[in-house]
Amino acid sequence: MMNPNGASSSDGDGASHSSSALKKNSKKPKYSRFSQQELPACKPILTPGLVISTFVVVSFLFIPIGLVSLFASERVVEIKERYDEDCIPSNYTKNVVGYIQSNETNKTCVKKFTVPKKMKSPVFIYYQLDNFYQNHRRYVKSRSDKQLQSKAFEDETETCKPEDSADKSPIVPCGLIAWSLFNDTYRFSVKNAALNVSKRDIAWKSDRQHKFGSDVYPKNFQSTGLIGGAKLTTSIPLSQQEDLIVWMRTAALPTFRKLYGKIEVDLEADDEVTVVIENNYNTYSFGGRKRLVLSTTTWIGGKNDFLGIAYISIGGICLFFAISFILLYVIKPRPLGDPSYLSWNKNTAANMK
């Protein structure tokens, strides 16, 4: 049937269907103020006053924070002694690897140092290792977290090779990290009186409660083959063996410290501390170094001058920029939003000349 304009009704139906199909297949997003970027926005104008004020505020905040942090770090009393070289007998200076690997050599070493300032308890004892790459990919992966958490996963040792089994029985804890557990020991005394070293709560609480099971006990650990480090007491669950828990939290850098224990009495200034060291751990074969560190803490933690220096440096730079902009604004001012500084206006002025 024809309509008065001469077009068929079927043509009109086809056009409406095609337009509806186009709308249905259109990828045009639904209109919203967010999609059209019409939401209110803050567009600050960087006036000289705003820029100078910002630099001044940052400098006045950062410099005091840096000074307080630096002062807190300076209050920390720290004693650091390297002992891996001093504990080598003179007849083994040319064969240090043979000395440390032998079961017949005497590993006992005595060192003395003087306390420079009063050290209030608790005094934290750390061992520091240099040139020891705990962050090596194969070393980090050589452990079984499932095995550490529950006795039910004792046989989960696929990731622990080559320290996965002994005599066809799984090693608990397995892997190179546990196998290389630090085994130097320290005994302290002042004026011939022994100082008790507490190892309670030296590991993270979350590690003790969630990562190391109370029903997991050492099994076949350091029993055969090459001995890598310390041995573990088979009657104590892994959740209570805090030396192991501290060691298993691998370090990100080749120089690191790990907490050995705490001395829970004050050490007076000028006290002479005697340390009996059992120098058992082999760092000589890879050029490593060992240090004993005694340190107090403040609200900022241990001794760390970097944080204070960083704050002071940033604050000083901001203060320098603030003063520079003030001088520039005073000596050579210019109107805000002057169109003569636009590039096309500069080009026009140059062509007119």
Automatic annotation (TrEMBL):
Region Disordered, annotated ranges: 1-31
One Pfam family hit: CDC50
Superkingdom classification of source: Eukaryota
Extent of Low complexity compositional bias: 1-21
Localization: Membrane
Record InterPro entries: CDC50/LEM3_fam (IPR005045)
One of the record's GO cellular component terms: endoplasmic reticulum
Transmembrane segments: 50-72, 309-331
This protein's UniProt keywords: Membrane, Transmembrane, Transmembrane helix
Coiled-coil segments on the chain, per record: none
PANTHER family per the UniProt record, alphabetical: ALA-INTERACTING SUBUNIT (PTHR10926:SF72), CELL CYCLE CONTROL PROTEIN 50 (PTHR10926)
Family: Belongs to the CDC50/LEM3 family.
Identification of the protein by name: ALA-interacting subunit
